[in-house]
Amino acid sequence: MRKGSLEYWPHRRAKAQMPRIRTWQEVAEPGFLGFVGFKAGMTHVAMTDDTESPSKGSEVTKPVTILEMPKVYIYGIRSYKKKYEYVEPDAVAYDKELAKKVGIKETKNADIAKMKEQKGIVNVRAMAFIDPADIGIANKRVMRFEMGVGGKDVQEKIAFIEKWMGKELKISDVIGTGEYIDVKAITKGKGWAGVIKRFGVARGYRKATGKIRHLGVLGAWHPAKVLYTVPHSGHMGYNYRLERNKRVLKMGTAKDAASINVSGGFVNYGVVKNDFIMLQGSIPGPSKRLIRIRKAMRNRKPKKEPQISYISIASKQGA
Prior knowledge:
This protein is mainly beta. The protein has helices at 96-102, 112-117, 154-164, 195-199, 206-209; strands at 31-32, 34-48, 59-68, 72-80, 86-92, 123-130, 143-147, 149-150, 168-169, 180-186, 192-193, 234-235, 240-252, 276-280, 290-295, 308-311.
């Protein structure tokens, strides 16, 4: 009997380290709707349960994930005429140092005033990049991406992004403690896997077929073909996944990093030295995985400041 999910099928290996976010929350107030971070590791906290569960008001223990947040640099505006059809050229804030980092040329520089006059534009997004070297992650190139922006109309969005052109953006400028966010990342890659590990198929009896870790039957006699729902061995993991409504329990700067760094550092990561956020629960991917976040699409709960009484900084080396 198969146990694997067909919710995502076929399982495709991710093509890029930077996941693409196609949909952003519609917000009337001007502001950035997303950010990028790196997964450091997990620990646990003790906090007062402020939900409507039976344990409301009592102290509970929750697993948490720490994300280290690099500085984000805004360098341009991208306009769209349709849902995914963007208009060229992009409006870019040209600066010699910025251009060298991003890899753009002066000839590609576009005037923002011309973008404002263009007709048929239905939406705009901010063009941004991060330098993983800022937080000590070895990467030869900067990583570019787009971010959704809030605003009543296109002109208001363009004016807002224009104010941030060439400037640094921090996570505290985007979200706050107690807020709910959506997380998109690439899951841990596990290489080639058989049907036992990949789909949870039961082990066979050796005396029945002479084999154990294999499929019992490929399907019915008719139709005379192997259906796509039949489990097969193949690539497992390293897929794009989106997890919704992750609560931000704590945020901090480099000065506050000592309060969440575990003894000996996070496994396969080290210590957090920059801005960070603490999310309730787990998220996809191993340590050092690039994580994209956005303001929650489906959760409109009011923002509550969680009351955390204890953060475990015990070593995870033997875990």
